[in-house]
Structures are given as C-alpha cells and as structure tokens.
Design a protein that fits this description.
Layout (H helix, E strand, L loop, with lengths): L1 H20 L3 E3 L10 E5 L5 H7 L10 E6 H4 L3 H11 L2 E3 L11 H8 L3 E4 L17 H8 L4 E8 L1 H4 L13 E4 L9 H24 L12
Parallel strand pairs: 1-7, 2-5, 2-6, 3-4, 3-5
Antiparallel strand pairs: 6-7
Helix pairs in contact: 1-2, 1-4
Amino acid sequence: MSRLLRRLFVMLIAYPVALLWLGMLVRHRERLPLKGPAIIAANHNSHLDILALYSLFPLYLIPKVRPAAAADYFLKNRWLAWFSENVVGIVPVIRSRQGRKDPLDGCYAALERGEILIIFPEGTRGEPEIMADLKSGIWHLVKRFPEVQVTPVFMSGLGRSMPKGELFPLPLFVDVFVGKPLAFQESKHEFMQQLSAQLRHLRSKLVRRDASPATKQVDAPSS
C-alpha cells in the first residue's frame, strides 16, 4: 500500500510541481544512480527539495528512493508522521543521540535494503539560496558502506520559490545540477572537503550560465 501511495504522491504532486509549475531544468541526469544502495547528497533550502529530487527519478524507481528527514519535525504528530512515512517515504533521523541508539540507524537499514538514500548534509533548511556548512553525518554513512556511490546534487531557485515558513511555491525557474560520483576517503576532513568542493563547483556552473546566454535543455525523467 505504501509503495502505491508513494508512486501516486510523486506522479500527482512531485512531477507536476517540479516539471510544470517550476519549470525545473536538469543538467547531467545520466549521472544519477538507477539502483541502490546509493546516496544522493543535496543542498537544502526548501520543503520543495524533496519534490524536486523525487522528480529526477523514473516512477518505477520511486519505492526505492528514500529521503532522510528530521524525526523531531516530520514525526511531531500522528497524522504528519503517517503522511511522512507512508506517502512521502522519509527515513526518520533523530537529530540528538538518545541513549545508545545511533541517529543514523534508519539510514544504515535503508542502504542495507539496497535503497537510494537522499541526504541533506547541511542538516536543515537554511537561508534561501545560501549553502550552509556541511555536517559530517554522511561520512559516517559512507564509512560503513564505502562501496556505495555518493552523487552530489546542487539545486537553485527552490529557496526563493518556497522559503521556510511559506506554504505555496511561487512559479520561479529552478536549476538542478548533478555532479560526478565521489569516492570514499578514510579521512573525514578530506571527504567533507571533497563534497563541499563538488557542491560549490556545481553552484559555479549556475553563475557561469547566468553570465552567458547559453541554451537551456530539459532532461525529462524516463518512464
């Protein structure tokens, strides 16, 4: 039942909002993983981020795509918890360690099931269109699963379309850049530096694109 609800959510909400309402443009969609286990590491500015990232994948793959999200926000009441887990399909992350329970247990389990895990290394939505410092939780994930592909994704425009506190998105253009997969590094500092550099590199493409009249191309998800 949950798999059907999630497909309906993406088909009726995520695809129309991201592709039609926002006119989302995607660069290098072919770099996205089409099977798990895999990790998508994306910047985070808006609740629309999850819709935009879901819209990158074909419908048949949606049950395998799982966004990690803060348990203290998405599970704060019974109805929101049911919607978040069964319709959106989040993997709850407890942002504070409780006893011996590892906050990333749900993420470990998702990767063990061969799922494609969406991670927001900034940890929370920040100021619109400003990338905050990255947190190292993703390194702990990759350390346990060093063979897992980590694909950086930079999104622009979603923070302006629906910033924190707003309920309805403005129809502004959104750009998505998919980077090359990253290799695991034993050094946490070097891995985080590599991820941060990749996201900044993808963001720089947006700056260069805005500075020149390049032709836009839309990559649509395959069915």
